[in-house]
Amino acid sequence: MKLKSRTLFEWGMVLLIILVIMGVFGSKMRLMQGQIELATFKSTLGSLRTAFVLEHLLIAVSSDEKGAPPLQRNPFLLLGQRPTNYAGSLDKVKLESVAPGNWVFDPMSNSVGYVLMNAQFLETPANTTAVWFRVSGLPRPQQMTAIENYTWLGEVLQ
Predict the structure, then answer these.
(1) What's the burial of 113, exposed, middle or buried (CB within 10 Å: 0-12/13-18/19+)?
(2) How far apart, in whole angstroms, are the C-alpha atoms of residue 79 and residue 12?
(3) Model's pTM, two decimal places?
(4) Which residue has the higher pLDDT, 151 or 65?
(5) Phi/psi of residue 127, each to 5°?
């Protein structure tokens, strides 16, 4: 009987250690998902800003002002290939129809939005499900600036 209770205790300890390791792994995995989302978000935001710079340079080197392409307010339309997670152009009122992890362009406010997959990693402002960047600098060069002060995993988004 003593041997049985000792074996049962040992198996219980092994199970407890496995559960603790699984809990730590799950926590680190969620943090990693937040970091991956932030990295892909920043990559797409950088691409959109680069598209504005390239549009401005194209117009600057153009010898004929009349031959310049019309001003494009939606930066996604400047990209050679739109991201697969671009949901399209819509109003903020319809934002709830956009799946998490997707980008939108709001022509009413002239802003670009991203619907968060893991909103718990956005520290400020509280209870935010999307981050918004206003397109400004008309006529050219255009830029994108954060509408609010967003902090994502300790990093301020600009």
Answers:
(1) buried
(2) 57
(3) 0.78
(4) 151
(5) 55, 40
